[in-house]
Amino acid sequence: MTTSTDELDAVIAQCVELCGKDAERLPAEGQLQELRRLLEEYQCKMTPTAEDYCRTNRHWAGQLQQLAERILRVPVNKVPPSTTSLALLILAEGIQIFGIDWFRDNVQLLVLTAHMNTVELRLLLDKPEAIPPEPFAAFCSILEFCMQCVETADFVPDEPALQLAKNIGEAVNFVVEFWTDCAQHNINLSNEVNACIYRLTVCVVAVTGQNMIRPELFKKAAIMLVRECTRQLNSKQLQTSRHILTVLDEIADALRGNEDVKQELADLTNRLHI
After folding, report:
1. Could you tell me the superkingdom of the organism this chain comes from (predicted)?
2. Per-residue pLDDT tens for 173-203?
């Protein structure tokens, strides 16, 4: 395999070894940052051969899970918040490499990941004007991934599936309500954060319909979706803007009676179909 794989093997093994048998002993943040960098670099350059290697090398995959789980299970008052965030960012990279099947033998880690991801999302949104786009995008991607697991994975038993659904629903409604509240109070979010919430909301509605987002909240979110999609079109972000095509019917239903925004939706629909 490539040198980057050798580096990854070495760094992961070193981090796991540093943990030892002490449940509260963790690698230094610098080591975790280096591991995340290597994972991100490797994931971006993966060839079909490398992808096959990653998906079949269960020891490599298991060590990565072992490390992340060790960090996430340490009581929150005994681990720096930035270390918890790094563990989730490492998991987000692992998800990109290994896919849904990565959690087949460790459903409890999937549930734990969903729970801690919800906690981290809440913490990030405490300061609307200073949300770091990269971690926020990663946490939103974990949320989307957990939702896909509930909907499509054949290895999640009923009880963990209910726990996952509860965490996902809580996080989604919190994020969407945050989005609509910011608009109502004229709090400006970065384009990157708006785009992440737009994508997440469209994904949720496309997969679950309007069931996961509270009805009154979705009426407000529908307005946000139309306006964010329009912004993206105006900025020539054609690929991401077209995500909305899968949920136009649900948005139209939510906007029934709102004549101003219905016209905006009609104009947007015409632009999307040109």
Report:
1. Eukaryota
2. 999 999 999 999 999 999 999 999 999 999 9
* Alpha-carbon gap, residue 122 to 117, rounded angstroms: 9
Domain that holds residue 144: 99-274
Domain count, the chain: 2
**Six-digit token string for 178:** 């945050």
* DSSP state letters, 116-181: HHHHHHHHHTTSGGG--HHHHHHHHHHHHHHHHHHHH-SS--HHHHHHHHHHHHHHHHHHHHHHHH
Q: Are residues 68 and 139 in the same domain?
A: no
Q: Write the pLDDT tens digit of every residue in 6-49.
A: 777 788 888 877 776 665 678 889 999 999 998 888 877 765 55
Same-domain pairing of 72 and 132: no
Domain C-terminal end among 37, 69, 96: 96
Whether 25 and 82 map to the same domain: the answer is: yes
Find tokens 């563990």 and name the residue.
87
Q: How far apart are CA 167 and CA 118, in angstroms?
A: 7
Q: 64 with 88: CB under 8 angstroms?
A: no
Residues 218 and 257 both lie in one domain = yes
- CB hemisphere CA count around 175 (13 angstroms): 32
Pair (91, 178) in one structural domain? no
